[in-house]
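Re: export button greyed out
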Amino acid sequence: MTLTASTDAAALASGAPPTPPGRRAAARGRRVRPGQPWWFLLPALAVLTTFFLVPTIYNLVYAFTDWSSFKTAINPVGFDNFHSLLSSGVLLADLRTTVIYALLVALFQNVFGLLLALLLEADTSLNRFARVMFFVPVIMSALAVGYVFQALLKPTGVVNSILGALAGHPVRYAWLADTRWTLLYVALIHAWKWMGLAMLIYLAGLKTIDQDALEAARIDGATTWQTFWQIRFPLLAPAMTFNVATALLGSMNSFDIVQATTGGGPAQTTEILNIFIYRTFGQGLFAQATTMSLVLLVVIAVMAFPTIWLLRRREQVL
Amino acid sequence: MRKRLGATAAVVASLVLAACSNPSSGSGDSGKGGSSSWPKETAKLNGTTLTIWAAQNSNTVAKKVISDFESATGAKVHVVTIPDPYEQGVQTKVASGDKPDLAFWQPTASELTSLNATTNLQTLDGAPWISKFSPALRNITGLLHGKRYAALISSPAVEGVYYNKQVFAKYGITSLPKNFDELLTDARQIKAKGGTPFYEMGGDKWATQWWVQVQLADAAKQGLWDRVNANKETFGDPTILNAIKKYKALVDEGLFNKNITSATFVDQGKALLAGDAAMVMQVNSFFGELQASASTAELNQKIGFFPISPSGNVGTFIPDQSNAVVAFKTGDGKRESAARQLLSFWLGSEYPKYLAAQNTVSLETAVPSPATVPDALKSVAASVPTSVGSMQALAVANPDLYLNLANMLAGTMSPEKVASTTQAQFAQLAKAIGAPGYK
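Workaround output, generated via the alternate export path:
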């Protein structure tokens, strides 16, 4: 009895869920009935099939047709759409922009989130208030965030006014019209919106670090930096897996913030793939737009496996 | 396990077959029933409800017409605003089978095609109001393959130059330019004296295409777009490419505003009204923007309009979404007939009241325009009969020329690249439409 309880405690400490009674019995070698009848899953499966599986299958099918708003008939055309997309060069350029955007967001969102979590770790009432304030952008509409920043970053907007007051001369830099750096600024806006969520996950991760390990480090004379870098940061690996994976893969599918701030401009330097898909769909080329979203799906899946494998491997150090 | 796999495969296969049918194809009734009957304008329609789809900038256009129609016939009419981008929203809904009774829609052939007019829209041939239109405007737009699908309800927009009269006077320009070269001479005169001749909205982008299109007015009259439609000429050939290069040369010469790459539509209106720039190449919706911030008296005093083309003062007309209304084939004979009745009422006995409420120019010979219509709009309307069709009006598809031109202004695309990218997109759309020559 005590053995099971302490195994459970160790499992809990490392972040794994407690083993259910059926599994434990199976581990001991006895045949076990599952906890619930299989048909309890049907309602959830029905919703999943209707709203997820069916549209994905349609997506796959329509990519091989010539569906458009110009005519009623839909004819299969084989790999035509893929050929014309890959030969136009716009798809690959936009994919490159999307991957760079996703990498920037993953970097900044996690750095900001971790810094905030470390800063607001102690449970004082000021910290609690600050945590709430930093979480508010997460629940704001992405389009609203985009429009707010579009107004702030105008050449005659608030940001330039503040910079001008500090610099002593008028600043008229067009933040959202720089063909080189606007992608970075938009990634920063995206990271700002979601850093509250990253902060929350990192806070949870920090709280589950075994106090014994930290006390031992303190007794051994480790500095704050050493404690952080060599003990706390590695032990945050599960939180990092979640944050980096969702930030990277989630922002590959981004649309709202970029559409609201730059609309893909200037000169299509911030045109992430979803904006190109939106533009193509708007011209009535439904099949081509479907093909592009299929390509995006494949690219995200291809990126997901190595990313998650690498991050999970880090966790095994524990 | 094998049974489950088999069941899943069966589900997938049936979905695949179902997917190959178009949800919007069901109601394509050939319309032989009611299409030729035009009911009396005020026939009773109690119990009939009509839906009109409108965009943000056209949802109040029919307000007076609708309230008068409702009192005269007992019908109920709802205006539903489809959010911008309007065309995309309407296309998506129609593609999934959701149709209104009437909708505001750009009456050009390319836009009627993108709505699949032959399947989705009622033909309006034989309508009682057609003969009331002035002859020059009767068949200028709204037609596709010889059949009429759209009813023109306001003067089609025209691409031309809106100028600030006070700035012209300040820089000593006493007569309006009579062709493109004279326009440039005047512009250089303004620049030499320290003014900004032209203002362009490279930030919002969509107006950049007017500069190329007005330069093509002469060529359009000689069948340029027919040749492009048949794949006998491309955007990369000298006619269009030289127009693009000329636009770039003018910008490089410094004849435009310094913030050209970030300027917006609103900035453009403010700049012309305040006299920060002398001229703007724009369409009617620009004047609508000016009307939102200045009175008619002020506009009559400050703002004028003249059309321009390489060899003369010929405008390039580009009817937009707020200029015309289409009627859908909904499958419900009663509502289809009521929709036609509303159009007859609007362009028939209600027309003078509509013109007064909207303060817009009359298209019918027997009905005069209200005296309070701003002078610039009167000039625009006067240029329509002699105007030439734009790319939107005459080409079989509508590529994103404006986007590529905005990229050129930002320095990331050469004129040649603009032409080749636009041509590639045009070819893709033309192929999807099934235009001969682009298979």
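Residues 32-155+320-367 of chain B form a domain with the D-Maltodextrin-Binding Protein; domain 2 fold (CATH 3.40.190.10). The button fix ships in the next patch.
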